[in-house]
Amino acid sequence: xxxxxxxxxxxxxxxxxxxxxxxxxxxxxxxxxxxxxxxxxxxxxxxxxxxxxxxxxxxxxxxxxxxxxxxxxxxx
Length: 76
What we know:
The chain is an all-alpha fold. It has helices spanning 11-24, 28-58, 65-75.
């Protein structure tokens, strides 16, 4: 089921988003939804990156692509 979400924008921002949507042949709703989900995904990816860097700093072990392929083969 679709749900409606209301956001408050000043007129300049509303006009900018509406013009952008028109140039892309998309609805404002699609543009705002996709931009919001992209932002969430970017922040999630950044957090995973930070966690991976922290883990690497605690245990700085790395593997070559060939080593990873062999590890995957032995787990199957």
